[in-house]
Design a protein that fits this description.
Blueprint (H helix, E strand, L loop, with lengths): L3 H6 L1 E9 L7 E10 L5 E6 L3 H8 L7 E2 L4 E5 L1 E7 L14 H13 L5 H17 L2 E7 L4 H14 L2 E5 L1 E2 L13 H17 L5 E7 L7 H14 L2 E6 L3 H10 L6 H7 L7 E5 L5 H10 L2 E4 L1 H6 L7 H6 L4 E3 L11 H18 L8 H15 L17 E5 L15 H11 L5 E6 L2 E4 L2
Parallel strand pairs: 1-4, 6-7, 7-8, 8-10, 9-10, 10-11, 11-12, 12-13, 13-14
Antiparallel strand pairs: 1-2, 2-3, 5-15, 15-16, 16-17
Helix pairs in contact: 4-5, 5-6, 6-7, 9-10, 13-14
Bound molecules: guanine and zinc ion (ZN).
Zinc ion binds next to strand 6.
């Protein structure tokens, strides 16, 4: 038998668990037992009726098990693979211009305010709390060019217990808005300072990500040297690609020697197995092959693509090339900070493609569920640690009550677990998310 001290270190839940695997977009485990050890890892997933045997084997008291009610379930935490924390201040506004005008008119003037750490603290606290409450257990953030405010975003994510990649934005050219850019050497020096300072703080769940904004706002020299920084420190890289037709055209003009937008990044060594590129609406089959070969992934941001009239990403085509793909809110090009919205807009975009072509095979809702969880973890190369309820992974999870009082969902008799999940994905909101766990720690209620 195990010692009693081990017993106090276990958390055990009994009820319905839903998640995805590589083979199955939706796996439903009814009346399951899931144990979380003191380090926040899933130590077992067993059958509820075998409680006596399991409790003896793992050394916990059967009466200490937390029992879910029938309208509740656990699902893996949502993974936002692309979100601009700094742009949260104007989320829900300013969606009336195409990308390049939108950046110059609304985005760069707001981002330039983040030299003010009090403003940064206000917005970054809001965005971390809001995304956590909406079930985002992992967020891949763009901050701004300001190192100290970017470090503050890392500190706030750590304080509230969110798993996060945080990027100090790099841009050494930028058309019109000359006061929101850096000198090349300054951008490199500040990136090094950002990385070493963030690593020095030893936040267990917060890591730096090398962040050249996009090819339009970065010189060749900057991109080449940032790729070196990422390689030397084994870091993630994030940027934007092929979001809007005018942007694609401008990149072709800026880099006439390159065959494609993807070729620009490849030539600058930015396409690695830890690279995540947002959008990709206009990538050719050739370009998607390069993504597959390099192991780089895409962040699909459908709210942003619709809101800025950028384009419709054909997710089915991306998946057929075996390119890793996750979902992103892209706040504030996307107006919603909720990944449930990203799931719904992913569905809408897929259905819009079917309106254009009746033979088109839309994504199933189960596939959109996988993209928002396991798909995102894979896109961020974190699926060894997160993404589903495989034993040994960290317990990143949402406790959902589909029938939450004052919530937006009405259940009727005999609604089974599959219907509960489908209703939650399509109709639910933060009122249905009772608890959020990241690496076994309860981070919601805040
Ligand atoms: N491309 C370069 N920067 C940005 C940004 O901030 N938002 C979006 N949607 N696209 C970009
Ligand atoms: Zn973006």
């Amino acid at each position: 038998a195990c010692s009693s001290s081990a017993a106090t270190n276990f958390k055990v839940f009994r009820g319905t668990f839903v998640h995805s695997t590589q083979e199955d977009a939706l796996v439903i485990l009814e009346d399951a037992l899931l144990g979380v050890d003191s380090t926040g890892k899933i130590s077992f997933v067993e059958k509820g009726p075998e409680l006596e045997k399991v409790s003896a084997k793992f050394g916990f008291n059967p009466s200490a098990v937390t029992q879910l009610s029938p309208q509740e379930f656990f699902m893996p935490g949502l993974v936002d693979t692309h979100i601009h924390a700094a742009q949260y201040s104007f989320a829900g506004t300013a969606l009336d211009l195409p990308l390049l005008d939108w950046l110059q008119t609304y985005t760069f003037p707001v981002e330039s305010r983040y030299s003010d750490l009090e403003f940064a603290r206000e917005v970054y606290t809001h965005v971390v709390k809001r995304t956590l409450r909406n079930g985002t257990t992992t967020a891949c953030y763009f901050a701004t060019i300001h190192t100290d405010a970017s470090l503050l975003l890392g500190e706030i994510a750590n304080d509230f217990g969110q798993r996060a990649l945080v990027g100090k934005v790099c841009m050494d050219r930028n058309g019109l808005h000359e006061h929101y850019k850096e000198e090349t050497q300054e951008s490199l020096d500040e990136t090094s300072r950002f990385i070493s300072e963030l690593i020095k703080r030893k936040y267990p769940l917060v890591k730096p990500v090398v962040t050249p904004r996009f090819a339009v706002s970065c010189t060749s020299e900057l991109m080449l040297k940032l790729a070196e920084v990422a390689r030397n420190n084994n870091l993630h890289i994030q940027s934007h690609i092929s979001e809007n037709k005018d942007e694609v055209k401008l990149v072709q003009e800026l880099f006439p020697e390159s065959e494609s937008y993807t070729d620009v990044y490849r030539k600058h060594n930015l396409l690695t197995s830890k690279t995540i590129m947002a959008h990709g609406c206009y990538l050719s089959d050739e370009e998607l092959k390069i993504f597959h070969q390099t192991g780089s992934s895409l962040a699909h941001c459908p709210n942003s693509n619709l809101s800025l009239c950028s384009g419709l990403l054909d997710v089915r085509k991306v998946l057929s090339h075996k390119v890793k793909l996750g979902l992103g809110t892209d706040v504030a090009g996307g107006y919603s900070p909720s990944m449930l919205d990203a799931v719904r807009r992913t569905r809408d975009t897929s259905k819009a493609l079917k309106i254009q072509d009746p033979a088109y095979q839309t994504l199933t809702w189960e596939e959109t569920f996988r993209l928002a969880t396991l798909g995102g973890s894979q896109a961020l190369s974190m699926d060894d640690q997160t993404g589903n309820f495989a034993v040994g992974k960290d317990f990143d999870a949402l406790r959902v009550n589909v029938a939450a009082p004052d919530g937006p969902i009405d259940l009727v008799q005999n609604d089974g677990p599959k219907v509960l999940l489908e209703k939650f994905l399509n109709l639910g909101d933060d009122r249905n998310i009772l608890e959020v766990y990241v690496a076994g720690r309860k981070v919601v209620p805040l």
